[in-house]
Amino acid sequence: MLRSASSLAMGLALVLCACAPVDPCDAVYCGPGRCDASSGEAVCECPYGYVQADMTCKRNLRHGDDHGDSIDAATPLEFMALNEVKSAVLDTVDDVDVFSFRVTAGRIYRFSCRRFLDEGYEGTDPTCVVELLDADGRTLPGSAGSGSPGYYRASVLATQDGTAYARVKGLFAPTIHRSYDYSLVDRGPDDFGDTLAEAARWSVGNRVSGNIEPYGDVDVIALDLVAGHTYQLLCRADDYNNCGMRVRGPGGEVLFQAGDLFNLQVMQSGRHTVELFFITGPRFSLCVGPYTFSSTDLTP
Known about the structure:
Elements: H1 5-19, E1 34-36, E2 43-45, E3 50-52, E4 57-59, E5 75-76, E6 86-89, E7 97-103, E8 107-117, E9 128-133, E10 145-148, E11 151-157, E12 162-170, E13 176-189, E14 200-202, E15 208-212, E16 219-225, E17 230-237, E18 243-248, E19 254-258, E20 261-265, E21 270-278, E22 289-297
Parallel strand pairs: 5-7, 14-16
Antiparallel strand pairs: 1-2, 3-4, 6-13, 7-12, 8-11, 8-13, 9-12, 10-11, 15-22, 16-21, 17-20, 17-22, 18-19, 18-21
């Protein structure tokens, strides 16, 4: 009895499938590492900062440590809600915690830490400090942080897509709790331009609500003012910051640079710019946070 060509082909395929070698790595996930089956058995080759465990690569943590101490052993994080926090521990004098997160160019990211102090603590330096780093461990430009004894935060405006890292370290004393809370927030794009060319045009009498972030941020507002008129320019911040203003005339000349209140007597009609920022002053300042700006025509 003759078999059809299709039956012969199917039988040949079954023979070939039965004889085809099975790759031991097909059922293995090595995480950040790679699977090697050159010896006939699946073996995970793990990058620096990771070790093989249960057929995968896990962060190589010191016994009792909750987060890795190096970029290679960083704990990956997802962004949190604005008031959401998670807890961690700095359990030795030399302990640091390193976290990683993905960033998108043009958006601002903030990492903050908070530690709880006993009543006997009398220091003034921050008890936890955050550094924002690139993949080579270098401080990200424009990511200077600020804080108080129990709270610290650092923000950065990402200039390119990629991975950034936050390193938390702190003081170690009997009056400082070893645990701390941390948060990672995507603050979105910058609300106002930082240069005269990017100034946001605003009408006199309309209030501006903005946010100075990251540290050193400047928001620039443009106002069309009339010669012979006097305008009151006022910037107000929250209890943790001190407003500063730099006012320029139509030619870019500086007319005022100091505090949060200025009565401007306009000598030349045209577009004036106001640069808004936070300054250190007679009271404590985080130099990051919300503000309001108002302009009022005082001329009858």
